[in-house]
Protein 1
Amino acid sequence: MMRTNVIRPSVATRLRQLINRIIDHDIFGRAAQLSYYFLLALFPLLLFLISLLGYFVQSGTGFRAKLIIYLAALMPSSAVTLVSTTLDEISKAAGGGKLSLGLLAALWAASNGMGAISSTLNTAYDLKETRPWWKVRLVSVALTMSLAVLIISALAIVLYGGRIGDAITGSYGLGDQFRWFWGLMQWPIALLFVLATFNLIYNFAPNVRHSQRRWITPGALVGVGLWLLVSFGFRIYLHFFDSYSVTYGSLGALIVLMLWFYFTGVAILIGGEINSAANERREQGAASRASGK
């Protein structure tokens, strides 16, 4: 049996290849397209989340306040102010059917955004869309609903983790050590939900084969890390150099929000490029092993 030596590229070579892929696929331009869809999906989705969780816990106003506080940990302060003000206006204008209307609007708008992500990730994976349009739409809606469940779960753990921990402690007779451990693990568990969100997008949004899907992908790890890094970095930058209100006036907060969406799109798409490169290396390795038999 013959063995073939597979030459593994260095880290610098892989980095150059990744940069070339990002440039060739116009990732930064496509991220700008995604930011538009993210903006359309944000407010209906937030209205639905507030209405739904507020209905279950019977504290919609309190939940909204907590949600805004935790959004402020990631989003720039001026963008958070814009989101809070817009939510107040939407809530006052909406009637009793805002839950169902918010759900329908969120599903439609967010599924449009998911469709744009699918198209962009197909480019990153060097794939052509062979699925019929109705299947792409169904996949987009199903992904949107799945991501909503993951987001709700993450928010429930972060916002109501104390109550959940107390309930578990009381039900199973656990002591203060478990309560301390649970309080320590709330944020890592919520981060796992975010990681699962990225993995779902990478595995089902593009037109990839079943054999190419992985439960944990390197692109998801890098994408989440990059998203957190650029989010906190952008907040620090705006804390010291916030000149958008001077340049754009009252539109400054909207510009900041769109920029944050833009950076989010860049993180998602770069993660997709990393996964695509990893898939290519696996296929080349499999081909080399097969040829050496």
Protein 2
Amino acid sequence: MVMGAGALGSLFGGLVANAGYDVTLVAREWHVAAIRKHGLRISGLTEITVDVKAVTSPEAAEPPDIVLFTVKSYDTETAAKQLKPCIHEETAVVSLQNGLGNEERLSEILGAEHVLGGVTSYGALLKEPGHVAHTGVGDTFIGELDGEISKRALRICEILNDGGIKAEAVADVRKKIWEKLIVNAAINPITAIARVRNEGLLHGELRWLMEATAREAASVARCAGVNIDVEAAVKKAVEVATKTGKNESSMLQDIKRGKRTEIDAISGEIVKLAEKFGMEAPINKTLHALVKNMKYQA
């Protein structure tokens, strides 16, 4: 099951279904209706149309063995409560969401024994109902929150790899989540505020701001006990902004569409942790405040 099948969830679910697995997408009604009528179309780096089951509620599907949890971070609690009656004792729930704290919220609601962490750098864009564009290939890492390389983590990665998704089970999934968080914190809010594509961060004052944001976020991670190389994290943010230069960040897209952003799970969580450890994080705090007060205006 893919819980919250938007762009990324539809891409992963469609690729796994295309490999012959029994997949159900849980998505918005307009997306479900189009998939039921025409199948799920994937275009771009992959060109296929997949006949895949799609429902608007997890209650309408068979209890899943594996759930890829891809809802927006601010919908985690609501979606987890919807999912809870529909899972069985052995169900594994993998968060592939942005930001920090998602795994903890899922554990509180579903039980920690069900929850794995995950992170992916695959790119996807929802073009229209029933149609998702595959825009980028990257890495996907999945792991137990206690650091074990478990049989179920290996099995989930095997299934994803069967679908053509490069996936690896890792012992340090929390570090992987932080590494992506730092990149997101350094790119997303600045592009949203400045209204620039990612390449706009590579020069002048915005280059300084991106690097300073990453450096500060990585320093918070180290205080939280995560073994992050600060300067390597800064270099990674620059590298991602360079490789994805023509892209608009998801946060910029959300602002332009008048949609809610995931700023609380990204910059907001960094600020919370900094305060917990008696640190100052003025750059991330400022970016968080500015994005929060944009009020999702187009």
Protein 3
Amino acid sequence: MRTIAHISDVHFGTIRDARIVDALVADVNARAPTLLVLSGDLTQRARASQYRAAAEMIARFDAPKLVVPGNHDVPLYNVVARFFAPLKNYARFITTDLRPTFEDEELTVLGINTARPLTLSINGFWKDGRISEEQLRDLQSRLNATPESGRMKVVVTHHPFIPPPGERVHGIVHNAARALEVLESCGVDVLLAGHLHMGYSGDVRAHHEATRRSILSIQAGTATSGRLRGGEPNAYNWITLDPDRVAIEVRAWDGNAFRTTTVTEFRRVDGVWTSQGDEITNHKSQITKKLQ
């Protein structure tokens, strides 16, 4: 069994409650995950001061870390930096590694940079992401080198592969269908992402009908930002992984501490990830009420 603390969209520059960062670090460190995953949008406008604050937070986590950038980690208004050095501050303050890897006896986790300075969304904003053919060849090479002996394979991006349930399709990574061809051929089990500030999960085949392999896609909400969506509180995912079982525990901020609001369990039966339902604690209504 392995555990991942999945944090996304911290957006330094939009944090309204300074206590939330301290509480997040304390909560994750107390639980001692196998790996800490940060799936992009560390900053709001890719400024040095925001990156510096993000780097200081990341350094406080005790667990091994795997980080990928998001679209907000590319400058928006500094056009020269956006097109000629889009991740200069990311490399300066966070890491120069845009293809991060974590491996142990039970788990392989690979990160992909989907942030692009030139990818327009459907409404004209520079926020969508893309996976290139070059990245897919590299990903395929790395995944095929991974031993198959019961080791789970996880891929981390900022942009998700599936939309939130009941919402219009938006924010999905470009070239997703082609990427899934490679991911399924390499036996990927789980995808982690953020971007939409909404926590949800499901089989990629519900949205990508051509995909044959059941791959579980898990999205995290925003852990610390004031840019909340869908009435959801600030939260991160605590993910427990076994070869044929994944449990997603949402740890949400209630104004004083991070507490469990839901636990969703998926089991793989005959190769298919199937939800076992949600266990909803009495904290959820209390947290939602405080936000209203």
